[in-house]
Every structure is written in structure tokens, then in C-alpha cells.
Amino acid sequence: MHELYKLASGIFVWIAILGFAAGMIGRLAHLALTARKKDPVVYQYFSLYYALRSMLHWIIPFASTGMRAHPVITIAAFVFHICLIVTPLFAAAHVILVMESWNVAWWHLPDPAADVMTVLVILGCLFFLIRRIAQEHVRYLSTAGDFVLIALVAAPFVTGFWTYHQWYGYETAGILHMLSGELMLLCLPFTRLFHMALWPFTRGYAGSEFGSLRHARDW
Amino acid sequence: MNQNNQKDTANNKNGIYDVGIDKGASRLTPEKIRKVFDALVETEGGARLRAYTNACVHCGLCSDACHHFLSKDNDPRLSPAGKVKQTISRILNKKAKLDVDFVKQACETVFTECNLCRRCVIYCPFGIDVAYLMLFVRRGCHQLGVVPQYIQDTAHSHASTFNQMWVRDDEWIDTLQWQEEEARDEIPDLRIPIDKKGADIFYSLIGPEPKFRAQLIYQMAVIFHMAGADWTLPSAPGWDNSDMCMFTGDMEMTARLKKIHFEAAMDLKAKRIVMGECGHAFRSVYDVGNRTLGWKMPPLPMVHAIEFYAEIFREKRIEILEKFDRPVTLHDPCNIVRGRGLGDEARYVINETCSTFIELEPNREHNFCCGAGGGVINCGPPFKNKRVESNRVKADQLAAARDKGAEVLIAPCHNCHGGLEDVIHHYELGLELKFLGDIIYECMKKE
Ligand code: HEM
Ligand code: HEM
Ligand code: SF4
Ligand code: SF4
Ligand code: SF4
Q1: H-only helix segments in chain A
Q2: Any CB–CB contact under 8 A between A39 and chain B?
Q3: B161-313 architecture in CATH?
């Protein structure tokens, strides 16, 4: 147990962070090079102005027709994603851990806020899971990987919550938390979670093509 | 999930027989199919293919953007991502077996269940271009020789005559002269100038006009004449600006077609191209043509008829005697509204020519496709019922405008006319269909 704790809080952290960084950079660079070779139009039509115009309409809640057509999903998706990204970056425990190890620190969330946000992420995972099963057209699109992905994202939040509240077996939960957090980080560039990195490019390119070539709106 | 799998097979091919698909596919083996698709992915599948297929989170937010999905009671197989799942996803999965049945089904899906209208692109949070993915599969089908017969015949016509309708060179010139003669009964000094060097306008149109609707050439000649335009048409191939080859995946042929069209205009040293009221032809020249030939933008200025109409009204070069007085509504053709943002220009022209205008809901970029586009109508009679049934939402949308009083439906696109005519007829909507040119011609001062 202690061995595992040492691994999870030591070398695995590095593997996760480096794997994450290398994966992100590597895959995006590969994509950029492939585009140079096989899709030169992407560079020709890419326009920063129109890319940003499109991205703004899709990152401000309800600024696109599609979001207005699906209000419940829009709210769920925004709450889910904001909490998902903000909580781990600003959870007090994480900030303190980083400060202790590397002597850098930043603002952290008050514990009750982090707690609520963690619950929101978990509820978000449940929402997406239920939607995936209950809605026929989403179920049809689903692969086993989609379910694994939701579990992968939920795991660090469930175990982090568990550890924080020091419930039964929280020491084990703490180790599971670190392991699942590291696993998720490592999976980000290599699974569908990579959508996070692709979004600015697919959205930006759609915005550019629609804006500069087709003189039309894409939201 | 069992239920889904069942659906996968039960609905296969809808029992429709098409020689191009069935005969074409029967000559193939799974090894051959795999080889051709793998080679295609290797050579032409680049960053967009990867980014689109990897970014899709299977959220289904694109589903209700697609008229096929909506019209067929939310059939999950027909959502944009559903069509991706059945086709390109399997192709990219190296372990999946691609047998003859797969090719038949995939071919029917990409050719007749997607109009390449790009409505889903503006509903997907990632802006995933499903039309691009469907076209990618069509390209593979073309390379395998599995293409619906009717549209392939059109592509053959393009390949041998450079026009879509097997119009012979002498028939083309005869038609122009015949229309000139007819028009001269009405306006004695009217000309249809052929091969005039250095004209301001090179006018190009689509194959079906000389073949079936020559009076549209007459009408346009009157509009040009009254607007005092300096225009011409070429006697040699290059006059047809349409292109079915870009829809069958035959991009080599597309390049030849677009090249001869641009060259015809440049040989005549025309200052710009004005295209007739067709949406897909406009897409083929403006968006697809330049790309395929390796230019970022077309090599000379070019406008759709709507832009030309708007221009002559702004410059007061044409006079309306009395506005068209029956209430009209407008179908925004995907290829010039999502494809070129001409929604405002179309409304401006309607305002100048019609007294009552009723909007369709949704409209502009959000309008539903007519169901004919992307070569679907060109797949011919075998798929006609299916096509019309797959556009019930269009009928509902039109019926709502009719109930508000609309009597005439304006569609500034030939292809849309084909699709809308079938929808109007099948759902007994009782709307009359017109081009913008019809209305202008009817209401303008002609002497
Ligand atoms: C890289 C290794 C990680 C380590 C070493 C780590 C460590 C910790 C520790 C020690 C706590 C505090 C528990 C307590 O208060 O007793 C915690 C809380 C938390 N962690 Fe992590 N964590 C890691 C990765 C992640 C990741 C990747 C995520 C999410 C994406 C995450 C989400 C959370 C959340 C949401 C909480 C707070 C729970 C609450 O306040 O209710 N952690 N983490
Ligand atoms: C900042 C960049 C990100 C963007 C723009 C983004 C965008 C999206 C979008 C548009 C969806 C579909 C929304 C929906 O179903 O309503 C989605 C779903 C999802 N995202 Fe993200 N995302 C980002 C980052 C992340 C990250 C970092 C993670 C996980 C660590 C993540 C995990 C998920 C999950 C689990 C889903 C649900 C998929 C489902 O329906 O099952 N996202 N994301
Ligand atoms: S909306 Fe976009 S990401 Fe979602 S399923 Fe459709 S194509 Fe995929
Ligand atoms: S391009 Fe049009 S027809 Fe094709 S899937 Fe998208 S919405 Fe449907
Ligand atoms: S035929 Fe008309 S409505 Fe249909 S895809 Fe083409 S432009 Fe769109």
C-alpha cells in the first residue's frame, strides 16, 4: 500500500504530466503537418478573425442556435465543463500539494465551493450517461469507449470527494484518486477526450470556411 | 443495443434495386474493397478526416439538424453522426470487414441519405463537416465503380460532352438562335450574343436549360437586354457550369469541367462570370472548382444571378411596372445561402419585385434543404419516393408558410425546383414554384 502511494504520488505524477504534454503537442503537431501535406486548403482558408468569431458564438452560453434549441444540454454541458476544468486547477489540496513540492502557489477555491463543483461534475457525468442510454439516437452513436470515457472522467472526482470527506477507506480512496487522476490525464491526448484540443481547430476552421469563403454564419 | 443491431440490417437498402449499386458491388470482393478504401485514406485522407472523426464526441447534437433524421421519425441511422458511424467509421476501423453488403449500404447512405447541405455543420459544437465525410466515402464508391446508375449517367454525359444532358454542340447553338428569334417577336432589337470578345459578362447556365427549359434563356436575355448589359455566351463547350461529377466523387472530371468553364470565359476575355439561378452549379464553380484546380479563389470575378439582379435594381437599370401581387415565400438554397450568404440579396430583390413576402421558418442559413441537393435527385426514379418521404419537414415548413397566406414559393435554384416540386406534389401543398427571374421577367418594363 505504501509502495503504491509512493509511486502514485511520485513517478506516476511525472509520467502523467509528461505523457499528457507530449501527447498533446505530438498529436497536434502531427495534425498540423498532415494538414500541410494533404489539406493545404486548411491553411489557405484559415482566418483568425472568422475563427474567433465562430468560437465566441460557441463558447458563450446560448449564443448559437443549436444551444438555444437544446437548453438543458447546454446548461449541463457548460456547468460540467467549467467545473471539470476549474476544480482540479484550483482545489486547495492540489494547490497545497504543488506548493509543497515545487514551491509555487496560486489562488485556491474555498473548500465548500470545490466540494459543490465536484458534485456538479459527478452529476454531469450521470446526466451524460443517462442521456446516452435513454435517447435512442445517442445510444445508436455510442461505443463502449464512450461509456469508459465517462467513467474515466468521473473516477477522480468521485475518489477526490471521498478522500476529502474522509469516509470509510479514504486512504485507499486517496491512492485510487491519484491513480485515476493520473490515468485520466494520460488519456486526454489519446482518447476522445482529445476533443478538448481539437475543438479550437475544427470550430475555427468551420468558422473560417463559413466566414471568409461562404460569407455565412455557422452558429 | 440488440435493438440497434437489428435496425442495422433490417433497414438495409430499403429493398431498392439500382443497377449501378447492385451490379457494381457484385463484382467486388472484401479484399478489393478494403484495399481501395485503405489506399484512399492513405492518399487523400488528411488532417480534416482525422480531426473530424476524432473530435466527434457522439453527442448527437447534430441529429435534429438533418431533415432525413427528422422526417423519418428520428431514425437514429439517419442522423449525421449516424451516417458517419455506418460508413467512414467502419472504413477507418482496420479490423472491420468491408464486404459487398457493406458497400451497397454505404453507397446508398452517402448518395441518397445525405444532401451535402451542411446544415448539420452549423449545429455541431465542433463544426464537424459531415458533408465532407460523406463525399469522402462517395469518392471511394466512385473508385470502386459503385455509383447509382442515373447520376453516373449524368457524369458520363459530362465526360463526353462537357455538359450534363448530352446536348450536342449544334443543338446548343440552335437553341440559342431559336430563343433569340422568339424573343425578337417581343423585343425586335434583342440579341443573344455568341462568342463576343471582351464582353462585361460571360453568362453560363446548366445543361437542363437548353434541353428542357429554353424559355429561361429567353427570359434572361430579356433581363440582360433591358438592363443594358454587355453579355455573351460561348458557342463551344464550357457554357454548362453544372457538375455532377463532384457529387459522384469523380474529382478528376470535376477539375476538367471547371477548367473548361473558366477557360471559356477567359478565352472570350470576359470581365466576369454571371451564373444562372442554380445552387449546386454555383457551389461547383465557386467553392469546389477553385479548390480542385488549386486556386484559393476563382480566377476571375463571378456572381450568382441573385447578385446580378440585386445589382441592376440598385443601379436602377431595370424598372418594375407593377409589383408581383400574390404573396410569396422564399426557399433559401443551401448552396448559395449557407454557401455564399446571399440571403439578404435575395430578400432585397424580392422586396423590389413583390408586394407581400412571408418568411419560411427556419430561414437563411438555417433553412432546411429541399431534399434534392448533393446529387440525390440525380440518383433518379428508384430513390424518388424515399427522397420525398425523407423530407416531410420541408413539407411542414412550407405548409406553415402557406397557412400564413403564401401562394408562390420562390426558389432561386434549379435543383431546389426539382426537389420542391416533388414535395409540393406529394404532400399536396398547392404552392406555385417560381424562379426570381420568372418574377422579374413578369413584372418588368419590356420596351
Ligand atoms: C495527479 C495526481 C493527483 C493528485 C496527487 C491529487 C491529489 C489530491 C488530494 C490529496 C486531494 C485532497 C483530498 C483531501 O482533501 O483530503 C484531492 C482532491 C481533489 N482532486 Fe485531486 N489529485 C490528482 C489529480 C486529480 C485530477 C486529474 C482531478 C480531476 C480532473 C482531480 C480532482 C480532484 C477534486 C475535484 C478534488 C476535491 C474534492 C472535493 O473537494 O470534494 N485530482 N486531490
Ligand atoms: C476546453 C475544452 C473543451 C471543449 C471545448 C469541450 C467541448 C465539449 C463538447 C462540445 C461536448 C459535447 C457537449 C454535449 O454533449 O452536450 C463535450 C462533451 C464531453 N466532454 Fe468536453 N470539452 C472540453 C474539455 C473537456 C475535458 C478537459 C474533458 C475531460 C477531462 C471533457 C470531457 C467531456 C465529456 C466526458 C463529455 C460528454 C460526452 C458524452 O456525451 O458522453 N471535455 N465536450
Ligand atoms: S454534433 Fe458533432 S460531435 Fe456531436 S455527434 Fe454530431 S458530429 Fe459528432
Ligand atoms: S449535410 Fe445535410 S443531409 Fe447531410 S447529414 Fe448534414 S444535415 Fe443531413
Ligand atoms: S438543391 Fe437547393 S436546397 Fe437542396 S441542397 Fe441544393 S441548394 Fe440546397
Answers
A1: 2-9, 11-38, 40-45, 48-59, 65-69, 71-90, 92-102, 111-134, 136-141, 144-165, 170-187, 195-208
A2: yes
A3: 3-Layer(aba) Sandwich (3.40)
**What CATH number belongs to B319-443?**
3.40.50
Q: How far apart are CA A10 and CA A105, in angstroms?
A: 19
Could you tell me if B142 and B247 are in contact, meaning their C-beta atoms sit under 8 angstroms apart? Answer: no
The percentage of chain B sitting over the pLDDT mark of 90, rounded to a whole number, equals 96
The verdict on the CB of residue A132 being under 6 Å from ligand 2 is yes
How confident is the model over B413-439, as pLDDT tens digits? Answer: 999 999 999 999 999 999 999 999 999
pTM summary value: 0.94
Residue A218 belongs to some domain of the structure: no
Pairs across A and B, CB distance < 8 A: 138
What is the CATH classification number for the domain harbouring A36? 1.20.950.20
Facing A202 at nearest CB: one of B4, B127, B291: B127
Q: Mutation target for B interface from A27, A74, A141: give the one with most B CBs within 10 A.
A: A141
ipTM for the complex shown:
0.95
The tens digit of pLDDT for each residue in A100-158 reads 989 999 999 999 999 999 999 999 999 999 999 999 999 999 999 999 999 999 999 99
Of the candidates B57, B79, B291, the beta carbon closest to that of A41 is on B291
Q: Quote the domain boundaries for residue A200.
A: 2-213
